Amino acid sequence: MNATQQHLLDTYRAARRTEAAPPTPGTHTVRTAREIRGWFRFRAVVTDPGDRVPGRVRRYARRVGGRGRAVVGGARRLVRLLQV
Questions:
Q1: Which of 15, 32, 34, 61 is close enough to 71 for a disulfide, judged by CB 3.0 to 4.6 Å?
Q2: What pTM did the predictor assign?
């Protein structure tokens, strides 16, 4: 069953029970995406710099030793890809 069929079924059930119809699929998608982006930005501000992903990668690279530069370079590329 896809989202449209589920929505039609929920609308039918709500009409039978004299309740309000549910929102259509995708109505709040943009708002939800903005809230998630805002949450990540908030976490970036309140998180201690040592606990952020780049800080954890640097600590790991120092522990690894001689392979550290290769690990840090790859990790920096990964962090750039993951940034929201």
A1: 61
A2: 0.43
